[in-house]
TrEMBL record:
Active-site residue numbers: 52 (charge relay system), 127 (charge relay system), 151 (acyl-ester intermediate)
Protein name: Glutamyl-tRNA(Gln) amidotransferase subunit A
Protein keywords: ATP-binding, Ligase, Nucleotide-binding, Protein biosynthesis, Transferase
Catalytic activity, reaction form: L-glutamyl-tRNA(Gln) + L-glutamine + ATP + H2O = L-glutaminyl-tRNA(Gln) + L-glutamate + ADP + phosphate + H(+)
Species of origin: Brumimicrobium salinarum
């Protein structure tokens, strides 16, 4: 813990932590030492974990990197946090992110952009940019993120770390500040697949506070050697496009060939909805976000405008002053697609396309062990380089499929670009197939 606290101070310029819980973490560490002496320490005894600032930890601040939650303190802990603490993990602090987890570069935080630990001129990706940069910069062993459309996997790809989004409904969302509830999932970022496996196993499973969590048994996720050769599908459309960086394409194809040479079956498959996935994702998530964010009214939580007189004005001014530009853009887009005249044309239509995407994904996974594709079309870009929101949304082209379909997906470090930045490989697994996905990942690492 002391070493990490030192590292955090040293790399303050990354802007990774919004707050370090030095007092409570030190107290935890001392208590764990006692337990260890008594031979009663938990399975995570002493593991230092940073948490994305949209996950509640009792009696600690949480802001979703938004001004609108300024001064707010959690009155309960997320189920995921409770379970980690029960196994003696140390929660070291809250990590910067895009405001309400909306973004792909971590430039949307009300508390300033986060920098990539590997090169501070570059973004770490988003929205869990603080989580990924903290792991890459050795500022914690494991960081929790949340993944609605790639927010764990994309920053993992940009920082050379491993990022895992379990199946939707594998880990309780209780205590996760909602962005788009039918997509959101908590998951870990780490350097070691064994840490990913252990932390996921401990957080996963039934929870009476979240009815969307599956009651399926959680098996041991400790990586095991493969028992047979793999049958892997790779999506042709993700590689046969001008949209992908040529070096990422070449390295991915090289891996496909290596795996073939090792006797695995690699089968090119077609996924014809590739152009529909980003629009579908943004119609549905902005709709859900506009509804979820209506609770921040200047009355119940955090920030209240000092300029406001009366109830109506309190709502309007607090929200206008409290939310950042990207969040407002999404609330506007979401209320538009849900409005009476446009509901069927946008929201209903997007739900239907979501079903088509889901069905096709499941169809491919019925015949293969997993789907292989790049995590991102490019490496991390320089800070302030992408200004157009649509261009930013297109960063998510390879990651949102797994959220639309609910499948588990992982990003593993694949290579280093000639520009010096890393990039990842993504695997999408079967629903609740975390175990198989982790075994395959361990084999590939
Ligand atoms: N970049 C995506 C978005 O802005 C993903 C966000 C996420 O997964 N939380 O919506």
């Amino acid at each position: 813990l002391n070493k990490y606290l030192e590292n955090i101070k040293e790399r303050d310029g990354l802007n990774a932590y919004l707050e370090v819980f030095e007092a409570s973490a030190t107290k935890q560490a001392i208590a764990i030492d006692e337990k260890r002496k008594a031979g009663k320490a938990g399975r995570l005894a002493g593991m230092v974990i940073g948490i994305k600032d949209n996950i509640c930890y009792k009696n600690h601040k949480v802001s979703a990197a938004s001004k609108i939650l300024e001064g707010f303190e959690s009155v309960f802990s997320a189920t995921a946090i409770e379970r980690l603490i029960a196994e003696d993990a140390i929660i070291v602090g809250r990590l910067n992110c895009d405001e309400f987890a909306m973004g792909s570069s971590n430039e949307n935080s009300a508390y300033g952009s986060v920098k990539n630990a590997l090169n501070e001129d570059y973004v770490p990706g988003g929205s869990s940019g603080g989580s990924a940069t903290a792991v890459a910069g050795n500022l914690c062993t494991v960081a929790l993120g949340s993944d609605t459309g790639g927010s764990i996997r994309q920053p993992a790809s940009y920082t050379g770390t491993i990022g895992f989004k379990p199946t939707y409904g594998r880990i309780s969302r209780y205590g996760l500040i909602a962005y788009a509830s039918s997509f959101d999932q908590i998951g870990p970022v780490a350097n070691d697949i064994k840490d990913i496996a252990l932390v996921t196993e401990i957080m996963a499973g039934k929870d009476e506070y979240d009815s969307t969590v599956s009651s399926k048994e959680v098996p041991s996720l400790t990586p095991q050697p493969l028992k047979s050769k793999l049958k892997i599908a790779y999506i042709k459309e993700t590689l046969d496009t001008d949209g992908i960086d040529p070096e990422i394409k070449a390295r991915t194809e090289q891996l496909v060939n290596c795996l073939r040479a090792d006797g695995h079956d690699l089968i090119p498959v077609s996924f014809s909805y590739i152009e529909q996935i980003v629009p579908t994702y943004y119609v549905l998530t902005t709709a859900e976000a506009s509804s979820n964010l209506s609770r921040f009214d200047g009355v119940h939580f955090g920030y209240r405008s000092k300029a406001a007189k009366g109830v109506e004005e309190t709502y309007v001014k607090s929200r206008s002053e409290g939310f950042g530009e990207e969040v407002k853009r999404r609330i506007m887009a979401g209320t538009f697609v849900l409005s009476q005249g446009y509901y069927d044309a946008y929201y209903t239509k997007a739900q239907k396309v979501r079903r088509l995407i889901q069905d096709r994904t499941l169809e491919i996974l019925n015949q293969h062990d997993c789907i292989l594709l790049p995590t991102t079309p490019s490496t991390a870009f320089e800070l302030n380089a992408v200004k157009d929101p649509i261009n930013m949304y297109l960063q998510d082209i390879y990651t949102v499929q797994a959220n639309l379909s609910g499948n588990p997906a992982i990003s593993l470090p694949l290579g280093k670009h000639s520009n010096g930045m890393p990039f990842g490989l993504q695997l999408i697994g079967k629903h609740f197939g975390e175990k198989e996905l982790i075994d395959i990942s361990a084999y590939l690492m």
